[in-house]
Amino acid sequence: MSRALNVPGIAYGGDYNPEQWPEEVWAEDMRLMAEAGVTMVSVNIFSWALLEPSEGTYDFSRLDRILDLLHAHGIAADLATPTAAPPAWFFVAHPDALPVDKDGRRLSYGSRQTFCPSSPAYREAALRITGELARRYADHPAVVMWHVHNEYGCHNAECYCDTSAAAFRDWLQDRYASLDALNHAWGTTFWSQWYYDWDQILPPRATGAVPNPTHRLDWRRFCSDALLSLYEAERDVLREAAPDTPATTNFMVNFSFDALDYWRWAPELDIVSNDHYLQSTDTASEIDIALSGDLVRSLAGGPWLLMEHSTGAVNWQPVNRAKTAGQLRRNALSHVARGADGIAYFQWRAAKAGAEQWHSAMLPHAGTDSQIWRDVVRLGADLRALAEVRGAVGTAEVAIVWDWNARWALELPSQPSAELRFLDLVRSWYEPLWRAGVAVDFVRPDADLSSYRLVLAPSLYLIDDEGAANLTGFAERGGTLGVGFHSGMVDANCHVRLGGYPGAFREALGVHTDELFPLLPDERVRLSDGGTGTLWSERVRLEGAQAVTSYQDGPLAGVPAITRNAHGSGTAWYLATHPDPATLAALLDRIRTEAGVQTVREAPEGVEVARRRGPDADYLFLINHTDRDAHIPVSPEATELLSGKPATGSVTVPAGEVAVVREPLRG
Ligand code: GAL
Predict the structure, then answer these.
(1) Per the residue annotation, which of 151, 234, 286, 640 is the catalytic one?
(2) Residue 359 beta carbon below 6 angstroms from any ligand 1 atom
(3) CATH topology match: 398-594 vs 607-663
(4) Spans of all domains in the chain
(5) Is 150 in the pocket of ligand 1 (CB under 6 A)?
(6) Is 431 part of the annotated catalytic residue set?
(7) Of 158, 286, 308, 640, which one is the catalytic site residue?
(8) What share of the chain is helix, strand, coil (3-state, %, to 5)?
(9) Residue 9 C-alpha from the chain's centroid
(10) How much distance in Å is there from the Cα of 346 to the middle of ligand 1?
(11) Pair 260, 152: CB distance under 8 Å
């Protein structure tokens, strides 16, 4: 966090929407928040229609009462600008501010976040209500943070209307300066796509055949930037009124949301916060939490806040599963283990009406006589016991390269295989490291890599020259680099790097591929080490590297599948196929052992291990996701913080439970 949150210890709370309830209920809210140990709530997120009943007329009386009430009860407010849900009157006055989808269909209001990000009328109205709010509450003693908007891009990341088209053209003019440069970058000599006038350029609306890939990629960059500019505009209004109050907006570093390039966003936030929800179909969702937490910590460059997750089921999946016994606690503490200095839920009180009436909350429909409420109260006590962990950060010897440009480009149409998913590929490499208890940071391709022993690039289809030089330079200077197939293939404009694959990494990897042989969805090739490869194979020729494993059958029998190359004073590994999980785990184990990477602590399979390092102590998080008790060696001078008991030499983490151990700093 680049700015400190003025709430002690690990903040605890959730979205609080008292405007949805009669005021008699509020007193009970305050009493129960005290019982649960709530210290901060996010308010006003979707209240625009109540604050501004008609254009330019305001009624802040209810919000005044809410903020005063919170303050009187010692609860801090993360005060939201309500701009994620413009009122009906706004759309009646400005129907052209409603977004248009790819097929040219204009959407209607009656939900939330149905506005065009490039609409001048929306921007003006959003900044006006933000200014009113900022000036009114700049000095309110309850307000500790601004919550700008809500989950930018969740429902309206892309709008294809004429206003967006004009804004896209402005963005392109900034990027390319001349049409000639754009035409070359987009390769528009292909299929007669050459543009002679800026006005000829449209958003990549629905077409009969495949769109131009660079057009589509620039569109995604533009859409992320258009929303970022809205965030910055609101933040600047808030800063002007209250320069000392930090601003955040809740990210969605989550399984499927990929609309925003958060590397560009994160530096613009005073405090990075994230929302994370489980997928009911994910049988190892604890790994998704860890991955997302490590990525958010890396974006933040330190501690961050979990702004939303759920106590139980959500309401937006085909089947919404409740959490299993102890899962609420394990999930929340797993986020803390990965650097969260605040834990919050959507939402405080389960809604009676509206689109989210079947979403879980801290206070369920059943009231306090419920398992969720008991778990919420217990978690409040846990977080109080962890107050001293605040500010401590993780340290890692391994970095995984994560890049939204590479993600977008990989998933464009007309790839050699439509089966490749960036997140799945990254997760498949992350998972064995998680299982082994290895700490991981995520980095952008041009990051300073000097503190890492091992840098892994599971999927880096697109890489610009600077990023490629940074990664190969890391190996040259003695680091270990691991590269996944179909990486280094195209430059920042999505142009193929010629002369053999994998383009930008060919020399460092000491290989040369002349043809790609992607595999069908159910196809497997046998590997010489006994494993199998899926998804991908390619005709690799060694140019300095050694073959570690080769294909045993199929059209490439005898061709290297996994290679290792001495590059400069370091090592570069290439995985030209997607090994089965056990083979990949064994391989990554070998790679990291050779690179000298340590595990955080040896622990039985299924016991998650993570460490945060404070100025005076290490905090070892042990999260037992199994149904067996686990015994973990710890320092003889350790204390288990959740129980407050000394743990001399070993700690037992019962099945499904969590321990957090304070240990003296180790080198
Ligand atoms: C988030 C959103 C919340 C709530 C939640 C339900 O995407 O920010 O307002 O809708 O999902 O899971």
Answers:
(1) 151
(2) yes
(3) no
(4) 398-594, 607-663
(5) yes
(6) no
(7) 308
(8) 35, 20, 45
(9) 24
(10) 6
(11) yes
Label each residue of 355-366 as H, E or C.
CCCCCCCCECCC
Reported as a pLDDT band with limits 50, 70 and 90, residue 648 is confident
Place of tokens 């299924």: 606
- The CA distance from 311 to 534, in Å, is 37
- Compute the distance between CA of residue 380 and CA of residue 360 in angstroms, rounded to an integer: 17
Which residue out of 250, 346, 348, 359 has the highest number of ligand 1 atoms within 8 Å of its CB and is therefore the one to mutate?
A: 346
- Residue 544 reports pLDDT greater than 70: yes
Nearest-CA residue for ligand 1 atom 3 is: 346
For residue 2, name the pLDDT band (cuts at 50, 70, 90).
Answer: confident
- Tokens representing 163 are 């206003």
Mean pLDDT of the chain: 97
- Verify whether ligand 1 is closer than 6 Å to residue 578 (CB atom): no
Question: Ligand 1 atom 5: the closest Cα is on which residue?
Answer: 346
Helix (H/G/I), strand (E/B), else coil: 67: helix
**What average pLDDT does this structure show over 259-265?**
98
Q: Which amino acid is it at 157? A: A
Please state the φ and ψ torsions of residue 664, each to the nearest 5 degrees.
Answer: -60, 150
Range list of H helices, 397-515: 404-410, 422-436, 465-476, 506-509
The domain defined by 607-663 folds into Immunoglobulin-like (2.60.40)
Q: Among candidates 511, 506, 513, 519, which has minimal Cα distance to 579? A: 519
Span from the CA of 154 to the centroid of ligand 1 (angstroms)? 9
Q: In angstroms, how far is CA 154 from the centroid of its own chain?
A: 13
For 584-654, strand residue ranges (E) read: 607-613, 617-624, 630-633, 638-640, 645-647, 650-653
Distance from Cα 123 to the centre of ligand 1, integer Å = 23
pLDDT of 306 higher than 90: yes
Q: Global pTM?
A: 0.98
- Whether 343 and 273 have beta carbons less than 8 Å apart is answered as no
Active site residue 151: yes
Rounded to whole angstroms, how far apart are CA atoms 443 and 448? Answer: 8
Q: Is the CB of 151 under 6 A from ligand 1?
A: yes
Cβ atoms < 10 Å from Cβ of 318: 6
Evaluate whether 500 touches 512 at the Cβ level (below 8 Å). Answer: yes
Greatest Cα pair distance, the chain, in angstroms, is: 76
**What is the number of helices (H) and of strands (E) in the chain?**
17, 28
Given a cut of 70, whether residue 168 has pLDDT beyond it is yes
667 band by pLDDT with thresholds 50, 70 and 90: low
Beta strand ranges found along 98-139 (DSSP E): none
Q: What is the residue with the minimal CA distance to atom 4 of ligand 1?
A: 346
Q: What angle do CA 341, 342, 346 make, to 5 degrees?
A: 155
Architecture of domain 398-594: 3-Layer(aba) Sandwich (3.40)
Kindly write down the DSSP assignment for every residue of 384-401, as one continuous string: HHTGGGTT-B---SEEEE
pLDDT digits (tens, 9 = 90+) for 196-231: 999 999 999 999 999 999 999 999 999 999 999 999
